[in-house]
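Batch manifest, entry 17 of 40.
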Amino acid sequence: MITEEYRRWLEADLVDFDLKRELREISGDEEAIRERFAKSLEFGTAGLRGTLGAGTNRMNIWVVRQATQGVADWVKTQGGSQTVAISYDSRLKGWSFARDAASVLAANGIKVRIYEELMPVPALSFATRYYHCNAGIMLTASHNPAQYNGYKAYGPDGCQMTDDAAAVVYASIQKTDVLNGAKYMSFSEGVEKGLIRFVSEDCKSAFYEAVESRQVRPGLCRTAGLKLVYSPLNGTGLVPVTRVLQDIGISDITIVPEQEYPNGYFTSCPYPNPEIYAALEKGLMLAREIGADLMLATDPDADRVGVAVRCPDGEYELVTGNEMGVLLLDYIASGRIEKGSMPKRPVAVKSIVSTPLADKVAEHYGVELRHTLTGFKWIGDQILQLEKAGEAERFIFGFEESYGYLAGDYVRDKDAVVASMLICEMAAYYRSVGSSLKERLEELYRDYGRYLNAVDSFEFPGLSGMDKMASIMEKLRTEPPKEFAGKAVVRVKDYEKTEETGLPRANVLIYELSDGATVIVRPSGTEPKIKAYYTTLGKDLEEAKKEKEALAAAVKPYFA
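Output type: structure tokens
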């Protein structure tokens, strides 16, 4: 079966020369053939994500066409505008994939609004809402290395597709032959017939206006004299982030030259993830050189942003996603109260794996902090529920520990453009009152306790990886640990048990320990890895770190 499928691909007109060459190169290599054809990439609520290359288990134009036919079949059952928005980032094959997706949709009689230049996730979410689309498609693999690309599908609210919709799409994909099952017309024919149109300047302008409307203290940055180093990590952030920052009055922006322009090979940062030091290293070197107040880096699809701040000793310190989430929540809440712009009964949202320090801050300001499953679609769903009740304005902020933030209901995914703007505004504000982001963070720790949040990832590559991960999670459920590092497990929350959590079913386990620490175990939804999240509380950072290291050592054997 696997060999037959390989031969079928080898004999087909694959259009993309790279695919044919790859298939010829692996001739006779049974393991390489098996890796590509033993299974198909699965379509879930996060869409598709995989290594570029030939085969059903790789990202290529044929898998994109097949997935898009599934989306088209679903759209045709929905009524409405029968329109889909499309964007793409700087990844290899991105424009080809976007164009082919548009071509499949057009062949199905579905109208398309596609960006003529690469634009980030929040712009795609915005366009989906702006044009009252049935769906949106973003071609991206987020922060994965250069050999990856992916396909994110969005619903009509601009939020990543729901479980129910994704299941319908996946069922349709399974019935569609990958090489000849998708309807197709050329991109030029779709344009000529008026089915494919580019996103208008009006839509782009409206996006920027929506972002800039989320300023807490408009005009503050014009006189702050903030000095910034910024890296788009060779992705989509350059144009939108710099435009917004310049619009609000930040003009002293130095771009990391090696990472300025789109480059899908990511030659200067092989793993373009703003969570890791290596991705920010060149930016930090430049920040030290010019004495910048702040260094920012957005990932390739500009839905996440990493930050380093200058400390009093002149060195730079990376701010974690949890810390920045708390800083932004604190700044937005206090600032909106000061300015009289806080809505009645304000709502903020965080994921269950994000820091409990946010709960303390929210309580202080009288903000209802809702907890959701991991995945920004769940934060988007909370906004949707408020919108249905005519109360969307109650939402002031949402965040995940993985560097994703959103202020405002104009999009329904994390937005590094608005986050970059607010982080800079926040830095400018604290500078104007003789303080800094670092000092404010230390004040929060003094007020509420020295929380430390950390995460370890355990990778399980190859075809057997998913089976191994499933086995580990099953054992953790059937033989739950009684203690970690000498601290008794006093409660286990299993998110497979919806009757206990009140949330949708999820493959997540939370272990609450006798000293108040927690260990959370969750398989990634987009990569072959299991993540272990630790929260410890100490009298100071050193004590909290020591507790974390002890927990990590106790947890590690479970993933051997």
